Structure formats: C-alpha cells, structure tokens
Amino acid sequence: MEHDSRPWGQYWVLDDATTHKVKRILVDPDERLSYQYHHHRSEAWTIVSGVGRITLDGIVKDYKVGDTAIIPQGVKHRIENAFNEPLIFIEVQHGSYFGEDDIVRIEDDYQRV
User: Which segments constitute the Mannose-6-phosphate isomerase type II C-terminal domain (predicted)?
Assistant: First the structure.
C-alpha cells in the first residue's frame, strides 16, 4: 500500500485504478492542506473521524463524521483540522489523471509550489 508523509499529516492509497483513486488521509490537529484545484479530476471527501473545516471556492463549512464534500474538477478547495483530535477522511478521485503534479496550489502554509 502506497503511503506518504506530508507537513500536515499523511495519506495511504487504498485503491489506484485507471478510472479512480482512493486515499485515507490523516490531518494532524491545527494543520491544513493547501488551497488548491485540479485540472484532471474531481474529488469526494467523506469524514470518518474528527471534524473537517472545508473551503470550497471561498465558502467555509465544518463537516462531521459521515458528511461528504463533493469537489468538482476546477473548484478551489482546502481542508483544515482546527480541532484537537486527528481528522481522518476518505478521498475518492474520479477523472482522467490522478498524479500529484495535478495539484495547482493557490495558497500553502508550507511554501510548496
């Protein structure tokens, strides 16, 4: 199983196919992913533990366990763990390409491009 550590936490790839990719993502307390969008994929994020503060095209909302955020291709998005417990969500990607180089970062706390 593919695994990677990031400045905000870590992820595990659960399924990787030509039509989709599925990840289990852990966001540490007081950390957040970059504000970003994708050219080649859409995503669905389902919270399985903790609370995710999700921004979609500038609109911020808290998502609790069982809630799913639908992120169409090209929509700017970010998830933040503003709470003390770990945040875990399942990300399902659909589209034509799932490489990490399809991340277009608009804003990043860790100065990544």
Answer: 6-108
Residue with tokens 């550590």, as numbered in its chain? 5
Q: What is the pLDDT along the chain (113 residues), one digit of tens a residue?
A: 899 999 999 999 999 999 999 999 999 999 999 999 999 999 999 999 999 999 999 999 999 999 999 999 999 999 999 999 999 999 999 999 999 999 999 999 999 97
Residue 62 lies in a domain: yes
CATH code, domain with 75: 2.60.120.10
Query: Does 113 map to a domain?
Result: no
Is 99 exposed, middle or buried (CB count within 10 Å of its CB: 0-12, 13-18, 19+)? exposed
